[in-house]
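Quick note —
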Amino acid sequence: MKLAATPIDGVAVVETARFMDHRGAFARLFCEDALAGLLGERRIVQINHSRTVQVGAVRGMHFQHAPHAEMKMVRCLKGRVFDVAVDLRAASATFLQWHAVELSEENARMLVIPEGCAHGFQVLEPDSELLYLHTAAYAPAAEGGVRHDDPELAITWPRAATDLSERDRRHPLIDKAFCGVEL
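Predicted structure written out below.
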C-alpha cells in the first residue's frame, strides 16, 4: 500500500497493489501496520457496505459531529464512483475546499477522509458498491451534512445529479453564519 497526500490535510489516497493471474485477482484492502501513520491511535470499529444502482446518483455530503466524529476509509468494490471529501474543520487552512478522486474496482484506490470532513460520491457505473471503514460507530444524533450542490463549495460533479435521498436534499446550504465543524 502506498499513501498519497492531497491538498487537504489528513485526506489521503491509498494506492493498493492488485495481484492478478489466470485464477483472478487478490488485493489487501486494509492493513493496520501500513496505515498506522494515518490511523494514529484510532481503530476501525464499524464497516459498512453500500450499493447504488443508478448512474448519476449522489450520496452525501455526510459527517458526524464530535464527540462521534469519525475518520472514514472508502473503497469501491464494484463499479466506479467520483468520491469527494470536503474540509469543514473550523480552523483548517483548507476550510470549505474539496478534493475528489475516482474510485473503482480496477484502480483499487481508497480515499481516507478525516474527522471534520464531509464525504459523498456520485455513481459513474450502474450497481456500484462501496466499502466504508469507520473509526466511530454511527450515531444518529451526531449526523450532519451539507448540500452536494452548495454554491459555496462549488463541487464539479462529472454528471448531473439524477437521484438523491430526501435527507440529502434537505441538508442546509452554507451561509455566513457557518463557522465550521468543531472537533
